[in-house]
Amino acid sequence: MTFPPKLLNEDEEVVLDLHPHWWFFSTPAFTLVVTVAAAVGVAMVDAPDWLFLAALGAVVLNLLWLAGRLARWATTNFVVTTDRLIYRAGVVAKQGKEIPLERLNDISFSQTIFERLMGAGDLLIESAGARGQQHFSDIRRPARVQNEIYRQIELAQARDADRMAGRRQLSIPEQIEKLDELRQRGVISQAEFDAKKTQLLDRL
């Protein structure tokens, strides 16, 4: 399940939309293989019926466990947008976290040797606020995710700098023009317009 576009802000775009790494399924999948092998072994020997039923029950339970993991995987999103970092999880009960990019202070990742071979790992994100540190596990290619988050932070800072540069102070003729518009709309009186215009002209 992808992150719903309706939850995005105006002019916000999704850069990364990740589900947990496939290693998320490793434990229930391994247990299912073991229980299936045990059930087949019990069926091939002259074992009591109760033992076969018990083995079959273990297979069913592990199938349900694996199905539950699949549902959790499908409803867990680690999202990086042009404005923020979003984490959403939960099949029935939902939980979510949102951190604006400008509040991120540090992003680090950790991988065991095995996780590095699998292409999985954990992210530790420090942000300004009450929560401070946030830990996210089973992230696919965490080093690349870290680099992408830093890249989006730099792009967001560049956009903010461009917006600030665009907010230049109006020249005196432009200020007088704005005042005249207010006078014509009746927001200020002719006397107020003349007084302010005189003040501006004196600054030339």
Précis, in short:
The chain contains six helices and seven strands. It is an alpha+beta fold.
What does this structure look like?
The chain has 204 residues and is an alpha+beta fold. The chain folds into two domains: 13-165, Pleckstrin-homology domain (PH domain)/Phosphotyrosine-binding domain (PTB) (PH-domain like, Roll), CATH 2.30.29.30; 172-202. 50% of the residues lie in helices and 22% in strands. The protein has helices at residues 26-44, 49-74, 113-118, 142-166, 172-184, 190-202; strands at 14-18, 77-81, 84-89, 95-100, 104-110, 120-127, 133-140. Strands 1-2-3-4 form a four-stranded antiparallel beta sheet. A three-stranded antiparallel beta sheet has the order 5-6-7. The longest helix has 26 residues, at 49-74. The protein is elongated. The termini are far apart. The model has no long low-confidence stretch (mean pLDDT 85).
